[in-house]
Inverse folding.
């Protein structure tokens, strides 16, 4: 195929002779000058102790972070803490909060869809211009909970979606066009695409070629990590690479959330998420760390996360700092990934959610929500904002009446959707926006 014909075929998405990975990376390289806002919703389990989570309102530069969020101090310039956010309505439970996280509704019978699913459907409907090959992505670390669908945060018309937490399954699904089964050969997707990628490199212009080489280099490192971890048993306390199953059978899948493998799985899943956003496979990801009532024993502790959340603030802090450390690493990886007009972090709005506000009180007020990144979408970071004075006094947030008021979290979600350029997203309980934390807001 001649160079001009090849480029036209790539742009039109009609390349059929190439491996799926080569065609995918080529289309991403062709869009090297198109700035697109991505969204990443990160769930961490069992709430927090708000007074030990939120920094004092004001600028974060030079501020002292409280115990639970101390690991985030090195990325303070990228953060925007939002104190005073609540989940509206009843169901003051872990599962009730998980359902509300990204849908804003208290019952799956409502047929609601989570925000990343709604965004993904809009991108898919416009895929000729959005360039996505997958509407949205649900993934995470330690998300197995048998067949109990109440432990999930992503929904499509009321049906729960299970996040994939095994990178050996997820990587070939996203980058190798493999839909079932896992074996070592499926983790070698770059090798099968090398010839096509070499041919593409000579056909593209310098900007597109640089972008293509960036993608290839990142995936090369990712594959090496994934294969090394798989072969050495660092992703599994078992003895073999096996297909993912949705149910826990005889305790087998607990290997994926064993304390000794958590850090390794987290690092590789983060790399997959970063590559997925960078390559334009999707623009919106829901990433779960654990599940509601999470029993995971994180590194540095000897007690399950949920049990720690029902002790005092100091005990809960010992596990919460691990999750926040993972968030810091995520932010740093996005910041280190080049993208149009800056970094991938500059073009990604990160939003954290949890199933509860105060983990020991089981309420839905002052949920541990923060935003990060989003510079090119106008988000003003490096601050902690207390929205309680601007909220609705006496509003019911789970089991607690917040006398100081609060702001519905779906107002945050709707603002994110609009700032990211989506027109079709609907959050049933939203009754306003938080434009004041963006450029051209009210200056707060």
């Amino acid at each position: 195929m001649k160079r001009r014909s090849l480029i036209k075929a790539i742009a039109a998405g009609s390349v059929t002779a190439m491996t799926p990975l080569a065609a995918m990376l080529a289309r991403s390289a062709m869009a090297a000058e198109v700035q697109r806002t991505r969204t990443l919703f990160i769930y961490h389990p069992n709430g927090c102790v708000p007074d030990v989570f939120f920094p004092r309102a004001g600028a974060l530069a030079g501020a002292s972070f409280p115990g639970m969020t101390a690991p985030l101090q090195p990325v303070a310039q990228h953060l925007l803490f939002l104190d005073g956010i609540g989940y509206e309505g009843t169901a003051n439970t872990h599962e009730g909060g998980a359902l509300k996280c990204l849908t804003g509704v208290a019952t799956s019978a409502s047929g609601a869809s989570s925000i990343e699913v709604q965004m993904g459907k809009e991108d898919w409907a416009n895929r000729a211009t959005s360039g996505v090959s997958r509407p949205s992505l649900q993934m995470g670390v330690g998300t197995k909970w048998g067949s109990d669908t109440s432990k999930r945060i992503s929904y499509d018309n009321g049906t729960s979606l299970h996040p994939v937490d095994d990178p050996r399954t997820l990587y070939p699904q996203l980058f190798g066009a493999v839909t079932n089964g896992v074996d070592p050969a499926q983790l070698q997707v770059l090798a099968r695409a090398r010839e096509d990628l070499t041919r593409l490199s000579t056909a593209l212009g310098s900007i597109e070629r640089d972008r293509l080489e960036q993608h290839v280099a990142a995936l090369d490192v990712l594959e090496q990590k994934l294969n090394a971890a798989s072969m050495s048993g660092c992703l599994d306390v078992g003895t073999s690479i096996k297909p993912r199953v949705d149910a826990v059978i005889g305790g087998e899948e607990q290997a994926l959330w064993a304390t000794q493998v958590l850090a390794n799985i987290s690092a590789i899943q983060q790399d997959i998420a970063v590559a997925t956003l960078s390559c334009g496979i999707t623009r919106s990801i829901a990433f779960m760390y654990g599940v509601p009532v999470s029993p995971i024993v994180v590194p540095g502790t000897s007690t399950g996360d949920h049990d720690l959340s029902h002790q005092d603030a100091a005990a809960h802090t010992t596990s919460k700092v691990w999750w926040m450390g993972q968030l810091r690493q995520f932010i740093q990886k996005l910041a280190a990934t080049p993208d149009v007009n800056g970094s991938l972090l500059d073009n990604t709005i990160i939003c954290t959610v949890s199933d509860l506000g105060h983990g020991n009180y089981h309420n839905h007020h002052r949920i541990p929500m923060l935003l990060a990144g989003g510079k090119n979408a106008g988000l003003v970071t490096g601050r902690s904002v207390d929205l309680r004075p601007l909220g609705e006094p006496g509003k019911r947030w789970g089991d607690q009446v917040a006398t100081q008021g609060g702001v519905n979290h779906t107002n945050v979600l709707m603002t994110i959707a609009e700032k990211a350029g989506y027109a079709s997203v609907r959050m049933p309980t939203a009754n306003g926006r938080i434009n004041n934390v963006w450029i051209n807001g009210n200056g707060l």
Summary: The chain is about 35% helix and 15% strand. Confidence is low (pLDDT under 50) at residues 11-15, 237-253. The first helix runs from residue 3 to 12.
